[in-house]
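for the recovery benchmark. tokens below, seq after
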């Protein structure tokens, strides 16, 4: 259990921050960018939950928010051993499988795409969360490819599925509110 009595520690005043293994990195390090983007994704999902009137989707999004805290801890734990322990949080295949099952269940309720869709409508806040999730994925991939101490492959897969989940959730929310906002090629000329 986490217990924080004091919010400021002054240890980051020099522009560095601590990782789970005790090492310190610059706050501009690629790993910290990825962690920050995951945190921003989580915050955007919180905004989306507040805008939704759907208890079932809200509960799924709340589970995702919890997963994103796990994912942030995973990213903050460099190394090459991605086995979860009591003291080391790691994203595991079951979390990815749950997202995939939820995507499939939501997708069964929406018609096939016949056009690209615009990020708007009743699901606008979810579209914003989806776009931020894509950025978090790019940041995590950049960290993994940069050789900065390893990134759990399951964390990368989770982020990829998360944007898929959010896209299908957008379609479902907009369907219930009248339909997707369709792109009209050249329609604003």
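predicted aa per position
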């Amino acid at each position: 259990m986490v217990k924080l009595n004091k919010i400021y520690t002054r240890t980051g005043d020099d522009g560095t921050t601590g990782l789970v293994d005790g090492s310190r990195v610059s706050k501009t390090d690629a790993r910290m960018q990825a962690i920050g983007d995951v945190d921003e994704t989580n915050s955007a999902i919180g905004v989306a939950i507040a805008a939704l009137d759907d208890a079932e989707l809200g509960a799924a999004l709340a589970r995702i928010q919890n997963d994103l805290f796990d994912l942030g801890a995973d990213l903050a734990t460099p190394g090459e051993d991605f086995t979860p322990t009591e003291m080391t949080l790691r994203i595991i295949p079951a979390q990815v499988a749950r997202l995939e099952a939820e995507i499939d269940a939501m997708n069964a309720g929406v018609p096939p795409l016949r056009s690209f869709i615009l990020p708007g409508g009743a699901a606008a806040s979810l579209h914003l969360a989806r776009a931020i999730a894509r950025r978090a994925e790019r940041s995590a991939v950049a960290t993994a490819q940069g050789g900065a101490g390893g990134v759990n492959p399951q964390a990368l897969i989770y982020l990829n599925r998360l944007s898929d989940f959010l896209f299908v959730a957008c379609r479902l929310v907009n369907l219930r509110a009248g339909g997707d906002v369709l792109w009209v090629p050249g329609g604003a000329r």
